[in-house]
Amino acid sequence: MTSQNSAAGTFTLPGTAITINRMGYGAMQLAGPHVWGPPKNVEEAVAVLREAVNAGVNHIDTSDFYGPHVTNQIIKQALHPYPAHLVIVTKIGARRGEDKSWIPALSRQEIIAGVHDNLRNLELEALDVVNLRVGGPNTPIEGSIAEPLSVLAELNKQGLIRHLGLSNVTAAQLAEAQKITDIVCVQNFYNIANRGDDPYIDQLGAHGIAYVPFFPLGGFTPLQSSALNEAAASLQVTPMQLALAWLLHRAPNILLIPGTSSRTHLRENLASATLRLPPEILAALENL
Predict the structure, then answer these.
(1) pTM: predicted TM-score of the whole model, two decimal places
(2) By C-alpha distance, which of 125, 131, 119 is closest to 91?
(3) Residue 5 pLDDT
(4) How far does Cα 263 stand from its chain's mean position?
(5) Contact of 130 with 165, CB cutoff 8 Å
(6) pLDDT of residue 287
(7) Which residues are annotated as catalytic?
(8) Which pLDDT tens digit goes with each residue over 184-233?
(9) Low-confidence residues of the chain, pLDDT below 70?
(10) Cα–Cα distance measured from residue 144 to residue 236, given in angstroms and rounded to the nearest whole number
């Protein structure tokens, strides 16, 4: 681990021997526009992944429906054979239509096929962590998740998946899931200006479960906030860096997966893990 990442600390997934550096990397932006097709510069995508791992990142978030297949194939090209310490987390529960749409894929057959797609394109015999992705684009939708999760639990027992997580779920769905299998992480929409999951994060932290915010900067663009901009300027950092640093400060069970297809932007993201936030800055950000 490098000094860049060590300032953010580490987190051990519950019931496992997996210790993750809290500043990770999300692979979604390695695909082309609208997360479809190959990127314009595959060589840069490969370089981004290699630099991230060399800088201490040991947690990569991906899915075979990114591209589709593209990001996993680039990860394999860049990093296979994988370092022993690297944890690759993927998602199941959607597929892409020919019109680039995102379509739920939660039947037994689709779940099994999705797992095997990830195994094949990453060239792995078992997946470290698989998140069951449900709900709407950014918002959970109440309802039972027992049927698709039970399929993943079967694949876990077969040894194709080591650990299971959830994405875009409510606290009630987490409780239902825990009656079926162990859950090591929850991935939901959350950032400094979208804080509906505040009580949920604390609940998960009390049980040692990781919380992984997706789109932590409000999407693919920086949050628009004069208070955030002013605070960032006072620290001589970008608003994006400050928003990431705030998330690391928010709770010790938060793991970050900011994505980028640029090595320059990657370095900025990693540097945010070293930021120390003065009390007056934290107070200003709490009022966003």
Answers:
(1) 0.94
(2) 131
(3) 43
(4) 19
(5) yes
(6) 79
(7) 66
(8) 999 999 998 889 999 999 999 999 999 999 975 544 355 567 888 899 99
(9) 1-7, 216-224
(10) 47
pLDDT of 216 reads 53
Q: Is 213 exposed, middle or buried (0-12, 13-18, 19+ CB in 10 A)?
A: buried
- Greatest extent of the chain over all pairs of C-alpha atoms, in Å: 53
Contacts of residue 231, defined as CB under 8 A and 6 or more positions apart, other chains included, come to 242, 281, 284, 285
Alpha-carbon torsion 203, 205, 210, 211, what sign? Answer: positive
Domain extents in the chain: 3-286
What is the length of the chain?
Answer: 288
CATH T-level fold of 3-286: TIM Barrel (3.20.20)
Do residues 130 and 161 touch, judged by C-beta distance below 8 A?
yes
